[in-house]
Design a protein that fits this description.
There is one protein chain. Helix 8 (311-325) links the parallel strand 11 (301-306) and strand 12. The protein has helices spanning 98-104, 125-128, 136-153, 165-174, 213-225, 239-248, 269-277, 311-325, 341-344, 348-361; strands at residues 10-13, 29-38, 41-51, 60-68, 76-80, 108-113, 158-163, 181-187, 203-205, 282-284, 301-306, 330-334. The model is unreliable at 1-26 (pLDDT under 50). It starts with 9 loop residues before the first strand and ends with a helix. Helix 5 packs across helix 6 and helix 5 (213-225) crosses helix 7. The strands form two sheets. The chain has a ten-stranded mixed β-sheet with strand order 1-2-3-4-6-5-7-8-11-12, with helices on both faces. The chain is built from ten helices and twelve strands. It is an alpha/beta fold and 365 residues long.
Length: 365
């Protein structure tokens, strides 16, 4: 796989969104275009940033479209990232990004920037109070708006893909009546047993008590530069060993590689650092949990489950997929994988991205 080259062109257009504007004629958007090349294929990237109700400072949602520049048909994929994540391309290599992998195979892909992407890392406590109103329903409303936007711009069977919390949003979207939704591609996500974080602040910091935000950013920058450099976190042989140890033992993911199993070589620690450095700092506590919805109808579902999160997690991935997909739902377990390894593992292109492509295009055996 070759690294995507630098952008050939960048054009800023402030004249509004291309195609229909879901949400009413007053929707305000900006639009950016860029061209790339990967695998010998010209790819076009379009990025929209659009205002959402109630129109506050941070009430903005982004959409990233990556597809062959030449006209193509077939399925369209809308990707919903996980907590603290966004739709930007953190790693511009098809073997480490599902959307790029699918785009080089001729599939049109879209990714979402949640409202959280508009909140600056240095937001004040007064700024963060706005996040108290961002419930799960607000996020699913945004996802439904995004799906309508995608359908207005890219005709074709729409499959919604989601990782982690994004997978839960995908299931919740599928609980709403929408006959145009063609299927769900679930990347290590489920409903039930939602994550809870201690504290009463409206926003959750991606940094924690063991690795505050500033220290987190310093560690990730050091690993990205060179994993063998001295660790800014004491007690480790080098920066790479520090990040490996912190990810492997993350208690909120059960320890034992539940977050990422770089210790056993499932992912490369430098690649992980690039992904983690792209995370948005803040996530609304109000969007952590909500009652499970009821499926509106049975849909084709392909799900992937990491095993390092433990057998209860794997069972939840299976149960949710079967509840939405019935007896035809397919779940592929990924032995040795931690949660984020599903996105950037060394074997993810072969064991996740290619089976997803084959399922989307009807080539799966």
């Amino acid at each position: 796989m070759t690294r995507i080259t630098a952008a050939l062109a960048l054009l800023l257009v402030v004249a509004g969104c291309r195609g229909p504007r879901p949400g009413g004629p007053g929707a305000q958007c900006t639009h950016v275009q860029a061209s790339h090349q990967a695998q010998g294929l010209d790819l076009c990237e379009d990025v929209w940033t659009c205002a959402r109700p109630p129109g506050g400072r941070f009430d903005r949602v982004g959409l990233h479209r990556i597809a062959p520049c030449a006209t193509v048909g077939g399925p369209v994929v809308l990707y919903l990232p996980g907590m603290h994540m966004n739709g930007e391309l953190a790693i511009r290599e098809p073997r480490y990004d599902l959307r790029l992998y699918l785009a080089t195979a001729g599939i049109r892909t879209w990714g979402v920037d949640y409202r959280t992407h508009a909140v600056p890392a240095d937001a004040s406590p007064a700024d963060l109070r706005a996040l108290a109103a961002w419930t799960t329903d607000v996020f699913v409303d945004d996802v439904a708006w995004a799906a309508a936007f995608v359908r207005g711009n890219d005709p074709g069977p729409l499959v919604v893909a989601g990782f982690s919390q994004g997978a839960a949003f995908a299931y919740r979207l599928a609980a709403r009546p929408d006959p145009s939704l063609a299927g769900l591609l679930i990347l290590d996500g489920a409903l039930g047993g939602g994550r809870r974080a201690s504290g009463d602040d409206p926003a959750i910091d991606v940094g924690g008590s063991h690795l505050p935000y500033a220290a987190r950013q310093q560690l990730l920058a050091t690993v990205n530069a060179e994993p063998s450099l001295p660790s800014p976190v004491p007690g480790f042989a080098n920066a790479g060993a520090a990040l490996e140890g912190i990810l492997y033992s993350a208690s909120s993911f059960g320890g034992q590689g539940g977050l990422s199993n770089t210790r056993d070589g499932v992912s490369d620690v430098r690649v992980l650092a690039r992904l983690l450095a792209s995370y948005d700092r803040w996530w609304p506590r109000a969007a952590l949990d909500a009652p499970d919805p009821t499926p509106a109808r049975t849909l084709p579902v392909l799900a992937f489950a990491s095993t390092r999160l433990g057998p209860e997690w794997v069972a939840r991935v299976h149960a949710t997929a079967q509840r939405w997909g019935g007896n035809t739902a397919r779940v592929r377990e990924l032995p040795g994988y931690g949660h984020v390894d599903v996105l950037v593992g060394k074997r993810a292109a072969r064991e996740v991205f290619e089976p997803a492509r084959a399922w989307l295009t009807g080539d799966a055996q």
